[in-house]
Amino acid sequence: MTDMEKQFVVGVDVGGQTSKIGVVDARGDVLVQSVIRTDGHEDPAEFVHDLAVAIRELVIKSGKEGQIRGVGVGAPNGNYYTGEIAFAPNLVWAANRNVPFAQLLSAALDGVPVSLTNDANAAAVGEMTYGVAKGMKHFIMITLGTGVGSGIVINGEVVYGNDGFAGELGHTCAVRHNGRLCGCGKTGCLEAYCSAMGVARTAREWLEQSDEPSLLRSIDNITSKDVYEAAKEGDELAIRIFNFTGRILGEKLADFIEFSAPEAIVLFGGLARAKEFIYQPTYEAMNANVLPLWRGKVELLFSQLKESDAAILGASALAWEL
Amino acid sequence: MTDMEKQFVVGVDVGGQTSKIGVVDARGDVLVQSVIRTDGHEDPAEFVHDLAVAIRELVIKSGKEGQIRGVGVGAPNGNYYTGEIAFAPNLVWAANRNVPFAQLLSAALDGVPVSLTNDANAAAVGEMTYGVAKGMKHFIMITLGTGVGSGIVINGEVVYGNDGFAGELGHTCAVRHNGRLCGCGKTGCLEAYCSAMGVARTAREWLEQSDEPSLLRSIDNITSKDVYEAAKEGDELAIRIFNFTGRILGEKLADFIEFSAPEAIVLFGGLARAKEFIYQPTYEAMNANVLPLWRGKVELLFSQLKESDAAILGASALAWEL
User: Fold this and answer.
1) Would you call A162 and B291 a contact, using CB atoms and an 8 Å cutoff?
2) Nearest residue of A to residue B254, measured between CA atoms
3) B201 against B40, higher pLDDT
4) Which of A1, A33, B223, B264 has a CA 20 to 30 Å removed from the CA of B152?
5) Is B293 found in the same domain as B312?
6) Are residues A42 and A120 both part of a single domain?
7) Number of CB atoms found within 10 A of residue B137's CB
8) Is A66 on the interface with B (CB under 8 A)?
9) Pairing of strands B68-74, B8-14
């Protein structure tokens, strides 16, 4: 069998706590999947060893031995050009060093090709291969998770830039003066407002600033999910939090449209599940702030991929290009 | 002679008042050039006729008849995909309509191929072909003229986006609240602060707001050139105007770097001539506002192309791709 005849790929989504593995076919069906701990190791070689063992076991379980074209990996701070995971604060074994991850994993799998990128770029490739961006040449993926990530597609290709790190739209400036401190050390970043943590922070700040009644007052350690649940109950403060979040997001989306003139912006991740509250304010602010020539012309879409499969699919899609 | 053996191109820079024409060789030398009026016609067909006559005359003068590979045109609101100039407020004959310019000009030149783009994209192609960005695959051109334009190059290609209009960085938002009204109808655009008109406006506003002595007080209808001349004389207000302008520009450049991770940003146009005053504040603000991973890593360059030739060269460079 030649490499091009191999009709299955493996997708690996490396997260801070766990890593998800799946064997995927060309239609985007995840045949089998499994999970291993990411955080049990200090040494990257140990994690790579465990991951290789788990991949081999899963491939055997799928019955597709010898038919795997390659492995695609999505990981925080993953660099497509170098195959390295560099100084990723959320990965114990890569927090303070540069790990040649693709090379290590390929060696541990007896030379099976491995392609790696960051998680948001993987999500963009997944959306383009299997999702709402199928057939699009120009779109921007925004992942609204714990942080805000992005994957930019121009002419059908993910933009990696000169060094492989392009597409850090979560750290463009949303609030110029007296903005919130972001995890990256800067202030006012989009991520500090429009991530799950940003939404929770808005809730805490607003609850402190007034005595307005709200379902959120009874909750300790408010999360963005709590805000969503309260909004569904009709809580006015919670609904205003989504309006505020959507406005800030939409204002920045207008800037992004003026950069690359995409067909669509695709939202993905935990906050995107609150579509009924976030769509309208985001879409309105995007159109109010963009040049007239794009007003009403750029679609604002929400990922339709099954949440449990999406991360694996995104990573696996990389492997088709190998 | 086959088309590929034709070793000369024509560059046309269409401006509001005049259009410059040049015959250019592969090294980027402008052999001969001429100028015609742009604003003498209401009918686009009449202007195209005059332009075609002027191009023929210039080619005869250059002695390169039959050796012209094609014509490249840079024009406000020029669309690379469609070859149209669409609703360009500064062009009398295209202010209220969509002119199929490339098609009309090619027909008037008996089928010589014509390629068209907007002036900032043409400048980026010129810089990549003949200028400081030669050999670069990833850079962003910012033209600081009457307005602020941009041409974005990723993987060695100008980004045109889904509709041909990508790269309107002059209209991304620099000042979110209570920003200046921009010519485009939005408020707070980069162009409203960092164009020649923006600098003049800053001068007028600041002179009104204080009684601080300044050489600028004696001048009617202050231009950005006046501010530059005053700064060269050591005028403190004028120097602070450049610091302010550079800071706003640098803040937005940080956003742009986070989008496409370029090797360099190239500044071009009238304001870029004030390099000794604009470089330092721009570079400092860019690095203070960008993610640590890019700090000190992205070059801030100034175009070295001869001012009189640059617009023609930029447009002509398009024709090599024909």
Assistant:
1) no
2) A172
3) B201
4) B223
5) no
6) yes
7) 15
8) no
9) parallel
